[in-house]
Specification:
Layout: H1 9-26, H2 30-36, H3 41-49, H4 68-80, H5 84-104, H6 107-119, E1 124-127, E2 143-147, E3 150-161, E4 168-174, E5 184-190, E6 196-201, E7 212-223, E8 227-228, H7 234-270, E9 272-273, E10 276-277, H8 282-310, H9 316-340, H10 351-359, H11 369-381
Helix pairs in contact: 1-4, 4-5, 4-7, 5-6, 5-7, 7-8, 7-9, 8-9, 9-10, 9-11
Length: about 400
């Protein structure tokens, strides 16, 4: 592991506390939560009391008052042990939903929602994907039509993280059906509004402890004051936060790569075969050496992107690059490492097996890797290109 100079002593003390919490309050119960398909609300409240939610939220809005590096610590400690339920659910709640409200919410919206989100009393979700509109957000059909002092919402969302348990959703909807990206708005919708129906919990191949749902909106009426930011400005708001979302995914993927290598080194040292250990074989050492070298390179790039983000200078091109590289290497590292576990690598009781199925989502969520390549490719072939002036993708 290279030296990571941006973490202070305070961050390291926080990491030790988070690690103790994760190992005592989450890890022993995670398998049961995977069988149940969701985490209990109790763990959200416990996480909130420990400052694991909305880490960089200022104290004036009920947050812990940390910086974004505290959020990085939480993501790393959860995914270090392959705890995909809270790892995914907390990240969407804290790094997306709370971030949107904090950035574009009115003072009333911020003071109403953010303290309760930081305490884990209110669970947040974000509604972008639809059955016919995933990466192409401009094609969404969910409508929010103005009717006096209200919006009336009709439509459907799918693949929604925290969808079954959410108390509020930041919903992307068309407020101008004839415009594409310029007709999208973001609206806060409370889950107890009449006509807001939570459909089935979706059956996924991985991340079983994190609930994912399809949601339906049938003439859901919300006050116009629930609008987040300016009307028709939702697409730009979504694009503004995508770099952070993709960097979060890279933080997750990088720590997973490091963890699976550690798991495999430990296992192959103990596993006997042909009069020795699996670690004695040259192939074992060569494969893990290659993965370790690639992971170190990824760690350097990811940490550089973290410093850029902290300085407010991470652009969409570099965010796409680090998301592409990290998720691709995550899939490769887990696949090759699982092979050394033999039949045990196919058993869900082993973390490597759970990591294998959980990893497949990373090349899809937050923008598929093909979209990342398109963003990077556009920048290479633009007639006039400057990293500091490149705007977000429009896919």
């Amino acid at each position: 592991m290279i030296k990571r100079s941006f973490f202070t002593d305070e961050h390291q003390a926080f990491r030790a506390a988070v690690r103790r919490f994760v190992e005592t309050e989450i890890q022993p119960h995670h398998a049961e939560w995977e069988r149940q398909g969701r985490m209990p609300r109790e763990i959200w409240l416990k996480a909130g009391s420990m400052g694991l939610l909305c880490c960089d939220l200022p104290e004036e809005y009920g947050g812990p008052g940390g910086d974004w590096l505290h959020s990085v610590v939480v993501v790393e400690e959860l995914w270090r042990l392959g705890l995909s339920g809270p790892g995914t659910g907390f990240m969407v709640h804290s790094e997306m939903v709370a971030a949107y409200i904090r950035t574009w919410g009115t003072e009333e919206q911020k003071r109403h929602w953010l303290p309760r989100m930081a305490r884990g009393e209110v669970i947040g979700s974000i509604g972008m994907s639809e059955p016919g509109a995933g990466s192409d957000l401009q094609a969404m059909t969910t409508r929010a039509q103005r009717d006096g002092d209200d919006y009336v919402i009709n439509g459907q969302k799918i693949f929604i993280t925290n969808g079954m348990m959410c108390d509020l959703i930041v919903l992307a909807a068309k407020t101008d059906k004839d415009a594409r990206k310029n007709g999208i708005s973001l609206i806060i919708v409370e889950a107890d509004r009449p006509g807001f129906v939570k459909g089935r919990a979706l059956e996924k191949i991985g991340t079983h402890a994190q609930d994912t749902a399809e949601l339906f909106f049938d003439n859901v009426r919300v006050p116009a004051s629930n609008l987040l930011g300016q009307e028709h400005n939702g697409f730009r708001m979504l694009m503004t936060k995508l770099a952070q979302e993709r960097l979060n995914q890279a933080v997750r993927s990088t720590i997973v790569c490091e963890s699976v290598i550690d798991w495999t080194v430990a296992y192959t040292r103990e596993r006997k075969a042909f009069g020795g250990t699996i670690a004695d074989f040259q192939n074992t050492q060569f494969v893990l050496a290659q993965l370790a070298a690639e992971t170190t390179s990824l760690r350097v790039f990811t940490d550089w992107c973290i410093t850029q983000f902290m300085a407010g200078e991470l652009g969409p091109i570099d965010a796409a690059k680090v998301k592409l590289l990290s998720t691709e290497l995550q899939g490769k590292a887990i696949d090759q490492c699982l092979q050394f576990f033999g039949g045990y690598g196919y058993m869900r009781e082993y973390p490597i097996a759970r990591a294998f199925v959980d990893a497949r989502l990373t090349r899809i969520g937050g923008g598929a890797i093909e979209v990342m390549k398109q963003i990077i490719g556009r920048s290479l072939f633009a007639a006039e290109r400057s990293p500091s002036k490149t705007t977000g993708d429009t896919t």
